[in-house]
Structures are given as C-alpha cells and as structure tokens.
Amino acid sequence: MDIDHFDPTPIYKQVARVIRGRIKSGELKPRDRIPSESQMVAEYGIARDTARQAVALLRSEGWVITLPQRGTFVALQPGTDA
C-alpha cells in the first residue's frame, strides 16, 4: 500500500493504515519494532511530524506501545487498548 498524496484522507491516517495492515497481516508481530520516524520519512516521503501523528494514532488505538529510549513496538494484543 502506497501513500496517495491526492487522496483526501490525511497522510498520517494513510501511514497508520499501512502499518495497521502490516500488523493485521502478521508481517509485524507483537513486540516487533515498527519503522522509526526517520524510516517513515524516507519510505513514504512524509514530514517527521506526520510520522509522529501516525504513531500517536496507532498508540491511541492500542496497536503499538512506545518505550522511551527504546522505540515503538507492536502491542502484545494489538488493537485492543490492552
């Protein structure tokens, strides 16, 4: 799934959708590190703040957890706020 800059859906939501899809498909498993903000910037051609918003959305939905100084990882029970 690519990011469509002409799609009316906000870019950060598109990025979150891509990562959510990778989690649902099993490509990213619980405790796997998700791409860093820098990797998202390079891979999707987005601003760092947009990457940050995507991660914040995934975190609020319970898909990922962020550990300070370590990174952001797929939650043990993704998508359940647990």
From TrEMBL:
InterPro entries, per the entry: Bact_HTH_transcr_reg (IPR050679), Tscrpt_reg_HTH_GntR (IPR000524), WH-like_DNA-bd_sf (IPR036388), WH_DNA-bd_sf (IPR036390)
One GO biological process term: negative regulation of DNA-templated transcription
SUPFAM superfamilies with a match to the protein in the record: Winged helix' DNA-binding domain
Annotated ranges, domain HTH gntR-type: 9-77
Source organism: Nocardiopsis gilva YIM 90087
PROSITE patterns referenced in this protein's UniProt entry, alphabetically: HTH_GNTR
Superkingdom of source: Bacteria
Keyword Glycoprotein assigned: no
UniProt name for this protein: GntR family transcriptional regulator
Keywords: DNA-binding, Transcription, Transcription regulation
Keyword Nucleotide-binding applies: no
Gene Ontology terms for molecular function: DNA binding; DNA-binding transcription factor activity
